[in-house]
Structure formats: C-alpha cells, structure tokens
TrEMBL record:
SMART domains: TPR
The UniProt record lists the keyword Transferase: no
Taxonomic lineage: unclassified sequences, metagenomes, ecological metagenomes
PROSITE patterns given in the database record: TPR (PS50005), TPR_REGION (PS50293)
The protein's name: Uncharacterized protein
Record keywords, A-Z: Repeat, TPR repeat
GO cellular component: cell outer membrane
Length: 264
C-alpha cells in the first residue's frame, strides 16, 4: 500500500504506511529505504540519510540505499560523503549507471576533469545513447580545452536529442572560438529557438556577426538580447563599441550610459 501511495506522489500517506511497516518489523530494510526516498522527495535530506542508514544497518548490501544516501549528501553539499556513498553503491552494483553519472558531476564541479571523464565514460558504457551522459563527457573535454573531443560528444548529444539547448550553445562557443562564424550563428540560433527567453544566445549571435563583419546583424542581435534582458551589461558595452566603430558616437554614448546604469 505504501508503494502505491509513493508512486502516486501521495507522500504523507506513503510515509504513514512505511512508518507502520517499520514499527511492525524494525528489520524491514525496504520500508526504511522508502521512508528515506519520501524524506528526500520532501527535501528533508538529513532525515533521509537517517532512514537510509537504518536500511543499510539491516541490509549492508543495499546499493540503491547507498546511492540515495549519496544523492542526499550531494543536496547538503557534503561532497566527500557523497563520493564515499556513491562509490560504495557502484562497488556493490557495477551496473548502477546513475551513480557513475553523479560521481562524474561531483568531480566536474570540483574541476577534477580527468576523474569526471572516468566516471562519465563508465556511465556511457552502460548507457551509450543517453544524451546527458554524452553531453557531460563533451563538457569535461571542453573544460580541458580538448575542443575536437568536446565537439564529437556535443554532436553526438545533438544527434540523440536535437533539442538539447546546452549542447547546441556549447558547440556554438567552440565554433566561434575556431572562427567558424556561420556554424556558430546557426547553432546559437537553434539554441535561441529552443529557449526563446534566453538573452545569451542572441548575445553570442551578435558576437559572431560582428566578428564576421556583419555589423547590422550584430546590432540587431545585441538589441534582441537587451530586449529580453534589459539589465544585460555586456550587450550594452558591445553595442556601444560597435556604434563607436561605425562612428555613431551619440548612439555609442547612449549604450555606455545604459551599461553604467545597469552596473554602477
């Protein structure tokens, strides 16, 4: 009954059911585990850890409990405890792909890119066609400035998920860095079409147009970025510099004033 409540997101009812189960049988590892999941879903991460510990005490070989405990520590920003529990999870169950993925994320955030790649690659061996895994490998390579490898995995991500905004955007950044402006514009435009309220794509389109010598399109794109986010200082500065280059000094001064107003 508790599981039915849980899967229907009736967490209070599920919690009561699992509490009764643990009272009736304190060695019911699954009930303790489910209690932990409910506390996790309710963002009570410390309580969740206590429940997972009870489950593990009863059943020491419980990879999903170690995995969920690791996620709880991640939410509490306790990375060392998260790593310890996630590593135990994959030691007990080497096919627990999401544990590899989350280990990779921790090391990526810690800028330990080689270790991140190690875990994302293990995840990819289990889930070769998962777009997020391929994207994360690309991101790790990108941070390592291994642009050809990053390109390969971003392209694979987009092949698997053509609507993957961040892969399109990041690949656009690489194409821009390589001065492949037509490609970068096309990629940023696809990203902008997916996330219509995002100023960053239009700003990058503006930079690509400006670098390719198309000042009018650059002005149009910077202006679009500003219309989406009127507080976007970088777009005002670039627009001001572009107007100065075109000797439209009154317009340039206006944009610089806007930049100062937004970033005094």
């Amino acid at each position: 009954l508790g599981r039915i409540y849980y899967y229907n997101k009736m967490y209070d009812e599920a919690k009561k059911s699992f509490q009764n189960a643990t009272l009736a049988n304190p060695k019911n590892a699954d009930a303790h585990y489910r209690m932990g999941l409910i506390n996790y879903m309710k963002k009570k991460y410390s309580e969740a850890i206590k429940s997972f510990d009870k489950a593990i005490h009863v059943k020491p070989e419980f990879p999903k409990a170690f995995y969920s405990k690791g996620l709880s520590f991640m939410k509490l920003n306790d990375k060392s405890s998260a790593i310890k529990n996630l590593k135990t999870a994959v030691k007990q169950d080497p096919k627990l792909d999401r544990a590899y993925f989350n280990l990779g994320n921790i090391f990526l955030e810690s800028k330990n890119y080689r270790e991140a790649l190690n875990y994302f690659t293990k995840d990819k061996q289990l889930r070769p066609n998962n777009p997020d895994t391929n994207f994360k490998i690309g991101e790790a390579y990108h941070e390592m400035k291994s642009y050809n490898n990053a390109t390969q995995f971003y392209e694979k991500t987009i092949e698997l998920d053509p609507q993957h905004y961040q892969a399109l955007f990041n690949l656009g950044l690489i194409k821009y860095a390589k001065k492949q402006y037509n490609d970068s514009i096309a990629l940023f435009q696809k990203a902008a079409n997916i996330k219509t309220d995002d100023h960053a794509s239009y700003y990058e389109i503006g930079k690509s147009y400006e670098s390719s010598g198309n000042e009018n399109k650059a002005i149009e794109s910077y202006s679009k970025a500003i219309s989406i986010n009127p507080n976007y200082t970088k777009a005002y500065i670039n627009l001001g510099q572009l107007y100065s280059k075109l000797k439209l000094f009154d317009k340039a001064v206006e944009q610089y004033k806007n930049a100062v107003t937004n970033n005094p």
